[in-house]
Amino acid sequence: MSETHNFVVLGGSGAGLGVAHSFLKHIKPELDKLGKAYHLYVVDRSSHFFWSTGSPRSVVSATLLPADELFTPIADGFKSYDSESYTFVHGTAESWDVEGRVVTIRLSDGRGVQTLPYYALVLATGVRTPSPATSIHDDYATSKASIEDLNRKIPSATSVIVAGGGPTGVETAGEVGHFLNGSAGWFRSRPSNPKAKVTLVTKGDKLLPVLSEARAIEAETLLNRVGVDVVYGVSVVSSVTDADGKTTVSLSNGEEWTADVYIPAWGTTPNSEYAPAHLKNDQGYIKTNGTTLRADAAAGPRVYVAGDVGDYSRGGFHSLYTALPVLATNIKRDLLAAASGRPDAKPEGPDRPFTGSTAETQAVPIGPSGVGAVNGWRLPGFLVWLAKGRNYMIGNIPMTVNGDMVRRDNTVWKQ
């Protein structure tokens, strides 16, 4: 066999794991036939995969959805492969030398840094939300502790503030309201005997920006039915928690509110601090060829972007599942071409193109119902609950971690 080429995937979320498993299942076997040696490295700051989709329910009560069920060891998902073909690195990407084609990893066990040269590199480091209860900030233990802290506070809370009008904020407010206040009865718009004042604040003039105005109005109606009030045009500027555990938030309109529980669920920040500035847009997302899903040409050859850290992504499962076959196909084309020994090392024929959908597609559970649409067509509330709200799709965790989500070979591209 020839020298070993490192195929490095930064990020162990759904996007990174999808690419990693596609490589081991459908790309590396073809390279092996050509006598080319490759080794997969998966790098993540957390030792465990976090199914953050389930966090809106899990933060409310361990009885409804225990935090333990949202976390699975990443390394366990690769046990079906030859252990000589892959390595999981528990650490955080600290810097990226584009010219030298090396990434530097700060190891999580405190043993310093590891420099990792790469032949091909996939950037799949994702995004983070303000709270570790809804995204990985450090290792998974931080997120688990944050969820468990809310589990202790919410059952006795008489006032809760949730900040953010996107899916995470709306779902979380809906779960909190339903848990504490129940739901309105027939011919009523609000619960008859609410236990807590639950308020959702958003800087926007409507909820759920991806969905239509009609769906946004429907979402507010459903929130009202579980005792949640929505305040528009206001954002949280800062928050302070006192010794008694109560939190005071300062709002953009100059007001201050105090609540037993405050849950920040607004916005996302790309995990791209390791990347050079010229390879990121003004918001910090990695510049990506939106058709081929390769990184900007300045990143060098065989560098790819998967998932929310790329400026092409709209976020969510629909975007991810549409992108993965395209990305895997173009990676396979590039690596096979390079392995062929041709001077230009370029694949023959056209790349597989990614076509990002702009159609209204999103499902948002709200208490015992929900709102949503698929390609602009309204989803009835009971279908949103059945498809997502019933258990927040935790059944997808094993297939994501062990690679069954890419079990079928979608890397065969015909123009």
UniProtKB/TrEMBL annotation:
Keywords: FAD, Flavoprotein, Oxidoreductase. Residues 6-314 form the FAD/NAD(P)-binding domain. Pfam families: Pyr_redox_2. Signal peptide: none annotated. One of its GO terms (molecular function) is electron-transferring-flavoprotein dehydrogenase activity. Residues 340-365 are annotated as: Disordered. PANTHER family: APOPTOSIS-INDUCING FACTOR 1, FERROPTOSIS SUPPRESSOR PROTEIN 1. It comes from the Eukaryota. This is FAD/NAD(P)-binding domain-containing protein. The lineage of its organism: Eukaryota, Fungi, Dikarya, Ascomycota, Pezizomycotina. Belongs to the FAD-dependent oxidoreductase family. One of its GO terms (cellular component) is cytoplasm. The keyword Signal does not apply. SUPFAM superfamilies: FAD/NAD(P)-binding domain. InterPro entries: FAD/NAD-bd_sf, FAD/NAD-binding_dom.
